[in-house]
Design goal:
It comes from Seriola lalandi dorsalis. The chain has about 500 residues and is mostly helical. The protein has 20 helices and two strands. It folds into two domains: about 325 residues, no CATH class; about 50 residues, no CATH class. It has a two-stranded antiparallel ribbon with strand order 1-2. Helix 1 packs parallel to helix 6. About 40% of the residues are buried.
């Protein structure tokens, strides 16, 4: 394990422990808001330690986390539960029934699921930060930028969603790990990782773009090599083989990544369009909640829902339309201005990343980074840093998420949507810090009392292993850029815990 990886893991471990501590304190100190959220009745008798676990970890179960916990405990009972994909509930139930099974005499299933959230998400976050650091090293080709990006990820603005009972940490670990494998050339293993990610969140389908782009880039590079090293019929054979292999990789990889989404939609169709469950088999308290709130449950004696009659009966699309009111420009209302303001910092980072990258590599962007012209041949060698040509596809991916999230989703989720799916917000933030913060430069600053360099035994200077911790005590003397970025990360990190864990609106 390198020093950088050790430093990142240590910082991630500290921030996970601090997050769990703060959510417990804030949840106990601030009264819960009476929000109109999903709160199913408890149908299991509490055991000895349930009240203590609820007091310590109850803040991790609010808002959408309650859906994941309910699915892990009861399965997919209500129609709108199908908005939440199955991998994370399966992970939680697996932990509750295996690692935490010795506690079953003192903790109910609900209590063990809450402990599974705390332990599982902490472990998954550590995996995701290691995967992000590895991906950053190979793509950015810059050790300092990769380290700073990973440290910023440890205080991500989406912190509460990485800690609470949400699938963001799981999805980030699988996505960043899959992209790292794809960059290393392990295409099949990358497809499996990205396919499993799709079983955690629907936007895993967008990762198909990486599978179509990166192998295409590799195939074009191979064809360029064949053109200079082979002749005649052998060259044509190599060209054909490279194209066939690209097509097979793209088709098979796309099918593998999309399979969990398709299988889950089929499961939803069978559950509600051809149900085999009668209302008598549903717990009376849960059935009463369905009748009171208007939740649809599968009923073999009732008529099928109207969405079953559509040419393409996708339950996920129906839920987003009917239950969440998600659609193109539907969120563009005056009353949603506060939510747009909440999402503005993350949107700003995404816009700045796209603009700065295009300004630095306009020719490469116009050619989609796939080939070189005679005029630009040799111009775009892999230079270290954010403007590396290998970053192009990640900026495109981030921009697609930004545009889709702004126009077609509840815009306040943009923070966690992008922070768990793309490394670009952390790359551009680290790039701006290294570019604009004198305290991070390897030269002397005007004030020797706030220099972040330390002296080694041979008299050479080097920056501390964790520049984030070194910058925070000197926050007032930092550059405006540093104050804006660190202020955004830290404030959202803490505010998210305070508000979300008490049923108050957050991103």
């Amino acid at each position: 394990m390198t020093m950088d990886v050790r430093a990142v893991l240590e910082f991630a471990t500290v921030t996970r422990g601090l997050s769990l501590f703060l959510q417990a304190v804030l949840n106990a100190a601030i009264p819960d808001h009476e929000a109109d959220a999903f709160r199913p009745p408890r149908t299991e008798e509490p055991l000895y330690l349930d009240s203590a676990v609820e007091w310590l970890l109850g803040g991790l179960s609010h808002w959408d986390a309650e859906h994941f916990l309910f699915i892990a405990e009861r399965g997919y009972l209500y129609e709108h539960n199908f908005a939440f994909f199955p991998l994370y509930p399966v992970v939680l139930r697996g932990l509750a029934e295996t690692l935490l099974w010795p506690l079953s005499c003192w903790l109910s299933v609900r209590g063990r699921l809450l402990v599974a959230v705390a332990l599982g998400n902490s472990a998954l976050f550590l995996l995701s930060v290691v995967a992000l650091h590895a991906l950053s090293r190979i793509v950015l080709q810059d050790r300092r930028l990769a380290l700073l990006s990973s440290l910023l990820y440890c205080i991500t603005p989406a912190n509460v969603f990485m800690t609470a009972g949400y699938s963001e940490s799981l999805f980030a670990a699988l996505t960043f790990g899959g992209l790292f494998l794809l960059e290393k050339g392990f295409t099949f293993r990358a497809c499996l990782a990205l396919s499993i990610a799709t079983a955690a969140r629907s936007n895993g389908l967008v990762n198909i773009g990486f599978l179509l782009y990166l192998p295409s880039l590799h195939a074009i590079s191979q064809i360029r090599v064949y053109r200079t090293t082979t002749k005649g019929h052998i060259k044509v054979f190599h060209y054909i083989w490279a194209i066939i292999r690209l097509l097979l990789t793209s088709l098979l990889g796309t099918a593998i990544i999309a399979l969990p989404f398709c299988a889950f939609q089929y499961y939803g169709y069978r559950t509600f369009c051809t149900p085999s469950v009668s209302l008598e088999r549903i717990h009376p308290a849960l059935l009463s909640l369905a009748e009171r709130k208007g939740y649809r449950v599968p009923d073999e004696n009732g008529p099928p829902p109207l969405w079953c009659m559509r040419p393409l009966p996708l339950l996920y699309s129906h839920i987003q339309d009917v239950y969440w009111d998600v659609g193109f420009l539907r969120y563009f209302e005056l009353k949603q201005i506060p939510n747009f303001i909440l999402a503005l910092p993350m949107a700003t980072l995404g816009i700045m990343a796209a603009y700065a990258y295009f300004q630095a590599n306009s020719e490469l962007c116009l050619r989609l980074g796939l080939w070189e012209t005679s005029a630009t041949k040799g111009l775009y060698k892999p230079t270290p840093g954010f403007f590396n040509p290998r970053v192009f596809v990640y900026v495109v991916h981030s921009t697609v998420l930004l545009v889709f999230g702004t126009l077609c989703m509840h815009v306040q989720v943009l923070t966690r949507f992008m922070a768990s799916s793309s490394p670009v917000p952390f790359w551009i933030s680290a790039h701006l810090l290294l570019l604009n913060e004198p305290l991070l430069h390897r030269r002397k600053t005007s004030n020797p009392n706030v220099q972040l360099q330390t002296h080694s035994r041979n008299g050479c200077k080097h920056t501390p292993q964790n520049p984030i911790i070194a910058l925070l005590p000197h926050f007032k003397t930092c550059s405006p850029t540093t104050q804006s970025i660190l202020g955004y990360f830290v404030s959202y990190w803490v505010l998210g815990l305070a508000l979300h864990c008490n049923f108050l609106p957050w991103t």
